[in-house]
Amino acid sequence: MIWPTNYFKLAAATMFTLFFAGGTFAPECTVEGQTMDDYLQNKFCDAFAALAQRICDTPGLADDVVVGYDTLNEPGFGWVGCSDLSILDSRQELRKGLTPTPHQAMMLGEGLPCDVEVWDFGSFGPKKVGVERVDPNGVSAWTPESGGCIWARHGVWDKKTGELLQKDYFTRNPKTSDPVDFLADFWKPFVRRFTHKLRAVQPQAIIFVEPPVNEFPPGWDETAGDPGGRLCYAPHFYDGLTLISKHFTSWFAVDYVNYLRGKYSHVCFAVKFGLSGVKSAFSMQLATLQEEGRKYLGDYPCLIGEIGIPYDMDDKHAYRTNDFTSQLSAMDANMHALESNLLHFTLWNYCSDNTHAWGDQWNGEDLSLWSRDVPGPDPRAEEEEGEDVSCFRCAATPTSRRHPSPATASRTGSITEDSDAVSTTNTEQGLITSTPPP
After folding, report:
1. Is 2 exposed, middle or buried (0-12, 13-18, 19+ CB in 10 A)?
2. 75-100 as b/e, with b when 16 or more CB fall inside 10 Å?
C-alpha cells in the first residue's frame, strides 16, 4: 500500500467527497437526517470544540500553551472536480503502483475485474510501466446493508453492465448544473464552520488555514463571512522527488509549485541544475506559497506546517555506514529555502519510537529527526549542561540540544519544543502550542 496514492482510490476518494460535498453529490446518503457533509463536518468540528473546551477549562493552557488549531491535515478533493472518470485524474500528481481510474476504482469496489495501469516513480517523476489484471473475484468493498456502491445508486455508472454513465458527474452540481469549484464551494465553507465552532469556545484561537497540498486558497472575503482576525496560513512543503524516491539528487531539482502555477510552458523548463539550482528551486517554491497566502488570504503570517526529509535514503545506506552526507545536503537545501524567505516552519518530525528497521512505524515513512537506533544518550532522559545528544540522525555532526533548532512536529501526538522555538505544531492532530523566547 502506497498511502499518498490512496487519495484517488475508492475509500479515501469517496470519504473526502462525502466529507466536503456529500449533500451535493450523494444526497440520498444521510445519517440521522443530515447529509453526509453536514454530519461528518459537524462531528469533526464538535470533537475539536470539545477538546478546546477542556483546554479552556484548564488554567494556563488556552491562548498561552495552546494558541490555535489547524483546519484539517492535508485535505483531499476526493473526486470533486474530476472532469473524466474514465481516465486518470490530472490532479493525481503521484502515480505509483496500481493506479486505477475513478471508474475502475468504483468497479473494483463492487468486485468487478479491471485491467489497471501500473506506474513507477523515478528521478524524472512518474512513468507508466505496465498494465495488470486485478480481479476481486466478486468480493465487494461495500457492506450488504449499504446497498452497494453509492455512486452507482446516484447514476454515475451501471453495476450490471459496468458502463460509465456520467463521466463528468463531479464537475457540476447535479441539481442546478452549475460548475463546481472545490476550494470555493466546499473547502472554504468547511473552514468557516470549523472556525465558528472553535472560536465559540476559544474566541482568541489562531486558525491555521491549510488548503490541499500544492493548492492555494480561494479569494478571501471577510465581509462575506470568511474568517478573519487571528489567522495563519499553514501550507505544507516537501520536495516530491526526494520524498517519494528516497534519494536526494544534488545536481537537479524541479521548481514544481511554479510549474503547476503556469510559470513554465513545459516541465523541462522548471528543472534547475547544480546544488545552487536545487536550493534556488526550493526557495522559489516556498516564496510562491508565502506570496499566495498574502494574495488570496490577506496580510497574515505564513507558517510552513510540515517540511522534512526521509532519512532512509538510498536503501538505508546511512544506517549501515554512518555517512549522512545526502541527508545533510537535503536538510541544508530545505533550511536554506526557509531562511531565505524568513519563513516560520515546523519540522516533520520527531518520532519517539523510530527505528532503522521500521522508521516512523507508519506506512514505510522514516522522517524522524531522532532514532533510538542511533548510538548515544537518550535525549528524553535528563541531560547535563552542554551534553551532546548524538541520538539525533546525521550524528556525524554532533548536535547539542542547547543549540537553537526549529520546532518539531511529533507523529505520536506529543508536542516537542526547545527554548528558542516561537511555535510548535502537530499538524496531524491540529494542536498548536507557543512558547516565548527566554
Report:
1. middle
2. bbbbbbbbebbeebbebbebbbebbb
Question: How many residues would you count in the chain?
Answer: 438
Among residues 389, 350, 392, 355, which one has the least CA distance to residue 368? Answer: 350
Which helix or strand (DSSP H or E) is residue 182 part of? none
Shortest CA distance to 89 belongs to which of 75, 105, 71, 112? Answer: 105
Distances (CA, A) of 309 to 167, 246, 305, 354, 368: 38, 8, 14, 14, 8
pLDDT band at 393 (very low <50, low <70, confident <90, very high): confident
Q: How far is CA 24 from CA 144, 182, 313, 340, in A?
A: 24, 12, 43, 43
Mean pLDDT of the 10-26 span: 98
User: In the predicted model, what is the mean pLDDT of the chain?
Assistant: 88
Report, as residue numbers or ranges, the catalytic residues: 74, 306
pLDDT above 90 covers a percentage of the chain that reads 80
* Cβ contact 79:17 at 8 Å: yes
Give Cα 312 to chain centroid, integer Å.
20
pTM, two decimal places? 0.87
Interval 117-163: pLDDT, tens: 999 987 778 899 999 999 999 999 999 988 999 999 999 999 999 99
Residue 179 has what DSSP assignment?
Answer: B
Residue 370 backbone dihedrals phi, psi, to 5 degrees: -125, 150
